[in-house]
Amino acid sequence: QVRLVESGGGLVQAGGSLRLSCAASGRTFSSYTMGWFRQAPGKEREFVATITWNGGVKNYADSVKGRFTISRDNAKNTVYLQMNSLKPEDTAVYYCAVDVYRYLANYQARDWGQGTQVTVSS
After folding, report:
1. How many Cα atoms occupy the beta-carbon half-sphere of 19 within 13 Å?
2. Are strands 78-83 and 18-24 parallel, antiparallel or unpaired?
C-alpha cells in the first residue's frame, strides 16, 4: 500500500505560483500512474492532472492546461504540481492520488492523500 502526504499549499494572489509536492511511501511508487485532483467548496472532486510511471505521458484538465505542470521524481518517491498564473477559481483542496485510471469519461484512483489547501485571492 502507498501512503501519500501532500505539502506546499497556501494563500497566493491571482497571477502567482505555487508548487505542490506529494511524498509517497512504499517501494512500488515508481510502478504507478500518479495524479492530482481538487475539490472546491460545494463542488465534487475533479481531475487536474496525471503522469504515467516514467513521466512519459501527462494529461491535464482543460481548465489548467498551459498553466499547471505535473512531474515526478521516482528516486525521491515524489510527484509535483507546479501551478502558475493562478486564478481565484483554482481555490480548492488539492489531493494527490495513486494508481490513477480512466473509467468511462472520468478519472478514478485507488487511493488518496489527505489534501492541501490552495487559496487564490483576487
Report:
1. 5
2. antiparallel
Q: How far apart are CA 87 and CA 62, in angstroms?
A: 14
Q: Which residues pair with 10 in a beta bridge?
A: 118
Q: What are phi and psi of 2, to 5 degrees?
A: -105, 130
pLDDT at 6: 97
Q: CA dihedral defined by 41, 81, 9, 116, rounded to 10 degrees?
A: 50
From CA 62, how far away is CA 70, in angstroms rounded?
14
pLDDT band of 88, cuts 50, 70, 90: very high
DSSP β-bridge partners for residue 119: 11
| Longest alpha-carbon distance in the chain | 41
Q: Is 44 helix (H, G, I), strand (E, B) or coil?
A: coil
